[in-house]
């Protein structure tokens, strides 16, 4: 399994950005895509995840209502639409994947596949 994250960039506070994650190598829809982020000087934290098998999605409290995770038309693609971005959203964003569902498996050790990060900078 390989993951490729893209879409990061520089955006002003209040702006929007969409991240993409391309996942190759899964042979069924029984897997989940997750997004994590690591801000400067901080530990990596879970942001959101989507279970491909049942379509359920989950968000951390810090992004709920502002971010939306979705599956692309291609079964191997997922997006993270980010709106109303704040300075605190500045981080390297990583997409990750795991077999099965994501509910109950939000911590990093539960995610076996990782893509490279993409940098999101929120600055005026």
Descriptive account of the structure:
- It is a single chain.
- This protein is an all-beta fold and 124 residues long.
- It contains no helices and eleven strands.
- The chain has strands at 2-6, 9-11, 17-24, 31-38, 45-51, 57-59, 67-71, 77-82, 91-99, 113-114, 118-122.
- Strands 2, 4, 5, 6, 9, 10 and 11 form a seven-stranded mixed beta sheet that branches. Strands 1-3-8-7 form a four-stranded antiparallel beta sheet, with no helix packed on it.
Tell me the layout of helices and strands.
Layout: E1 2-6, E2 9-11, E3 17-24, E4 31-38, E5 45-51, E6 57-59, E7 67-71, E8 77-82, E9 91-99, E10 113-114, E11 118-122
Parallel strand pairs: 2-11
Antiparallel strand pairs: 1-3, 3-8, 4-5, 4-9, 5-6, 7-8, 9-10, 9-11
Structure described in brief:
This protein has strands at residues 2-6, 9-11, 17-24, 31-38, 45-51, 57-59, 67-71, 77-82, 91-99, 113-114, 118-122. It has 124 residues and is mostly beta strands. Strands 2, 4, 5, 6, 9, 10 and 11 form a 7-stranded mixed sheet that branches. A 4-stranded antiparallel sheet has the order 1-3-8-7, with no helix packed on it.
Question: Which features characterize this protein?
Answer:
124 residues; mainly beta; seven-stranded mixed beta sheet; four-stranded antiparallel beta sheet; 49% strand; globular
């Amino acid at each position: 399994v390989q993951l490729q994250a893209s879409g990061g960039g520089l955006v002003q506070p209040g702006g929007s950005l969409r991240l993409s994650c391309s996942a190759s190598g899964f042979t069924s829809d029984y897997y989940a895509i997750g997004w994590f982020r690591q801000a400067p000087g901080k530990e990596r934290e879970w942001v959101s995840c989507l279970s491909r098998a049942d379509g359920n999605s989950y968000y951390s409290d810090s992004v709920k209502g502002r971010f939306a995770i979705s599956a692309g038309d291609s079964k191997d693609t997922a997006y993270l639409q980010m709106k109303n971005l704040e300075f605190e959203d500045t981080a390297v964003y990583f997409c990750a994947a795991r077999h099965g569902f994501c509910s109950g498996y939000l911590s990093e050790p539960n995610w076996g596949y990782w893509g490279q990060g993409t940098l999101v900078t929120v600055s005026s």
